[in-house]
Amino acid sequence: MSDLAPIDVGARLARLRERLPEEACDALVVTDLVNVRYLTGFTGSNATLLVTADDATLVTDGRYRTQSTEQLEASGVDVAVTIANDPGPALADAARGITRVGLEADDVAWATQRRWSIDTFSWAHLVPTEGVLLGLRSVKDDGEVDRLEAASDIADAALADVVDRLDDGLTEQAFRRLLEDAMADHGSEGPSFETIVASGPNGAKPHARPSDRVIGATGGEFVVIDFGATVDGYHSDMTRTLAVGDLSETQERMFDVVRRSQATGVDRVAAGVRCKSVDDACRQVIEDAGWGDAFAHGTGHGIGLVIHESPRLSSVSNDVLAPGHCVTVEPGVYLPDHGGVRVEDSVVVTAGGCRLLTKAPYTR
Ligand code: ZN
Ligand code: ZN
After folding, report:
1. Parts of the chain belonging to CATH 3.40.350.10
2. Does the reported pTM lie above 0.85?
């Protein structure tokens, strides 16, 4: 995977600094570890990052003395590292003289906020911010898109390797293991979330966990397979619903409707389009088929350093698609008597439309 475009981590701090005035902050304390990784390349399990207009300080503990220096150097970012068990004094030092200190309101515990306002940043005004880094993270650069595509390619290849084993009378759990092993063989760092293998009636539960049910136990049935791989921390996401045995007429129709709904949604995706309208487009096809109530989740979500990111494609979303957004389109129909069908592709949004990151065939 050496041909992946480089990721410009250094540019991210500059983009964050541009945002600080809009957030009425002179500095931001970054506590969400995914955001710390995004801004510095550091992947340890304990870190607090203080970003001011001119400086940035990462505080972590002694376990990460070597790793933090190595990773920050590899990212080429200008961030000072302080090793401390209690980050308070180092953060106070780094924020000395700053009057408006922003916090990630979605991430900071109440107790921490109280301690910081009374003690660590006692002279400052603490400003709650929301979604600043989520917004920055939602637009991927070429290096990030390359990694999401590499992860998607791994998932595609893994499914192709094991798909014939669906006919072998395996349990859902056994098939999940085969699929995850195949992803590892193709270079995945790990599954991007808990792999879903849901056969027959289990498929009617959108987030069923793999069980000891034998795939194909009732003859003609669907298997919903929702999974992904990770490359350099970037998560792919795809769903295929495959038939085992002969499908009923209703099942054939379910598949046809969901596939048309999904293709309609993908066609709608383009920069400048409201996320809600992609959801509307998918939902309309399913409602026209009389199954509106059986599509009880949102149409999609952003993917990146975590599996569910901004933007959200749903009926309540106010997000608008932009070039570089990487999102899923994943409508489904779930009928307890017939099983479930979901089809999910990941795409990268372009000016005129989108490009598929998922390339696996829809049937076998
Ligand atoms: Zn998925
Ligand atoms: Zn998804």
Report:
1. 9-137
2. yes
Q: Which long-range contacts (CB under 8 A, 24 or more apart) does 289-295 make?
A: 289/253, 289/257, 289/333, 291/254, 291/257, 291/333, 291/335, 294/333, 294/334, 294/335, 295/261, 295/331, 295/332, 295/333, 295/334
Interval between CA 44 and ligand 1 midpoint (Å) = 26
Q: Give the model's pLDDT for residue 207.
A: 84
Residue 127 alpha carbon to ligand 2 centre in Å: 33
34 CA → ligand 1 middle, Å: 20
- Compute CA distances 212 → 26, 172, 223, 245, whole Å: 55, 6, 14, 19
Q: Ligand 1 centre from 359 Cα, in Å?
A: 14
Please give the mean pLDDT across all residues of the chain: 97
- Kindly report, residue by residue over 252-265, the tens digit of the pLDDT: 999 999 999 999 99
CB 228 within 8 A of CB 192: yes
Query: How many Cβ atoms are within 10 Å of 68's Cβ, its own excluded?
Result: 24
Angstrom distance (rounded) from CA 313 to CA 316? 8
In the chain, residues under CATH classification 3.90.230.10 are 139-356
Q: Which fold has domain 9-137?
A: Creatine Amidinohydrolase; Chain A, domain 1 (3.40.350)
Lowest-pLDDT range of 154-163, 200-209, 264-273: 200-209
pLDDT digits (tens, 9 = 90+) for 312-352: 999 999 999 999 999 999 999 999 999 999 999 999 999 99
Angle in degrees, 0-180, between the axes of helices 33-40 and 65-75, rounded to the nearest 10: 50
Domain made up of 139-356: CATH architecture: Alpha-Beta Complex (3.90)
